[in-house]
Design brief:
669 residues, alpha+beta, Nucleotidyltransferase, domain 5, Rossmann fold, Dna Ligase, domain 1, 9-stranded mixed beta sheet, 6-stranded mixed beta sheet, 37 strands, 28% strand, globular
Amino acid sequence: MTDEIRVGADVGGTFTDVVLLTEEDELVTAKVPTTDDQSEAVLEGVRKACEKADLRPRDVDAFSHAMTVTTNALLEESGARTALVTTEGFRDVLEIGRQDRPALYDLNAEKPDPLVPRRRRFEVAERATPEGVERAPDEAAVRDLADEIRETDTESVAIALLHAYADPANEQAVAEILREELDASVSASHEVLAAFREYERTATTVVDAYVTPKIDAYLGRLVERAVEAEIPPPLVMQSNGGIADAETVRDHAVTTCLSGPAAGVVGAHATAEGATDTAGVVTFDMGGTSSDVSLVREGDVERTTEAEIGGRPVGVPMVDVTTVGAGGGSIAWVDSGGALRVGPESAGANPGPACYGRGGERPTVTDATLALGYLDGDTALGGELSLDTDAAHDALADLADEADLAGPVEAARGVYRVANANTTRAVRAVTVERGHDPRNFALAAFGGAGPMHAAALAERLDVGRVVVPRACGVLSAFGLLAADESRDAVRTYRTSLDAADSAEIEGVLAELADEVRADLRDPEAAAIARQADLRYSGQSFELPVEVGESFDPETVAERFHDAHETASGYRMDEAVELVGLRARATVARETPAVAYESAGEARVGEREANFGGEFREVAVNRREALAAGREVSGPAICEQADSTVVVPPEWRAGVREDGTLVLEREGDS
């Protein structure tokens, strides 16, 4: 048993999911529609979960939260009015970027507009090199610059001076003056991302400045409302898969860009990896708006520092998630060439899919699964939302006419297949394109819609095993209960490994370890992981490898050769360069052990569902009534309040002791 009552609240595009774990290890879930002010839905969901558990909000001991405020601000371009201060002659770095073309042969392809327009980019006469400061900024000139910025009605300022990652003295001086002069948030690049590459460092600092006012205001409201409800202030999920206290996150807003998807991957890691003897799991989270795919291998989630949000690079460590616009609410449409497409536009929660009966008229993936019989018209989606089968058929009939298909069922089959094809490409992006064979992994399916598509997706990938955690419909919220507290830091350090000074490198790693411990609530309990970013001489990209307890150049080089061969399929007889050092501090939290006891009659009836173009009568089961050790042969459907599991023909589902369903193809061991 746990010694505390934990609550996790995850905000999605359609629903806000809440999971509560009692002191008796009982798992209680709640879903409420997401509100414009996400904190309202979060607190309503917590109150609803407490009521179902016969508890009061004041009984909660720990409260964790994942949000989409940062992601929405970037995708909708609704962040703060931001100014950029940079070195004289470099104001256009943000717009020039890497001169990459998003589509090489598309003459009309466009990049997203910079978050900071040119009229709000300002220059400072100063200069630093990787060896140190050559020219310090003039204090009077910086104060005059503050007056210019003030006239633009700026809400937030990003400072990214040349080579501030190597010597931040000039940037520190400018930041100090602007913080004194302006009533605005100020983000300095050496505090956000102390790493080389001017464009990525500048872009990441701009993102931090752009979202900080929104994050600060949102978390301020949430903390205030939590205190009023006598709930502990929230611990917030970061993009790296670890939680941090709200005050730390308010100072490092860019670390929350993938808050919600990261929580789902952590939840899958905590519940699904132990259910299979494969090399790891591919996590597949299909919600109302999109599908998120990631990889868990060698006992840890895969991370990256080369992510993009809305076409803009963000260089802080993140769980390596690939997102596609294929969710339950994704709208199906026909393009100018007559091809059936799904997403990225979503019907959202309001009006939602046509079957919601809230005024939506355009066909969605949820309408398709209802028409195929995977969902039932009598199902209360999310425990409270009834579905209108006739409305779904009407919307799909219109789509069938437009796509020249036989009828609504054929349209539904097409929508289902296209959504699965979109997600297949995302799985290949995190496996095949990273040097991993998806057949060596299990597929961990969750989200409200994920378990309905998982087996069909696995067949496309030739994956023989699907794991569906018990709390699959709210797994991102469950992941918040299992997430460790963590903090990351990076520093550019460039040298050939042949000439590396191990003692000096150990000193830098020690400084980074002190830095990441500083923001933790219990620094003494932290475990420190150390990494080196390496590349072959002449390459323009690097790979991270573990350093271990001591920095040994030969050992680190061999680990890099192995990592490069896995990622690219070959190794080179070239000198290896060290370009950066990293440290991560982690304070482990106990993974919650959830009690599972089946209750009631499992078989609740039959209905017709479409497999392979034909409707067949299938058994319908209540998932919570399936006893541990029981097997269900397909075709079958297992329903629960927050999700539905489809077991196709030639598949079987076994129930583990913790309630996890493991689906396997007949004939596979």
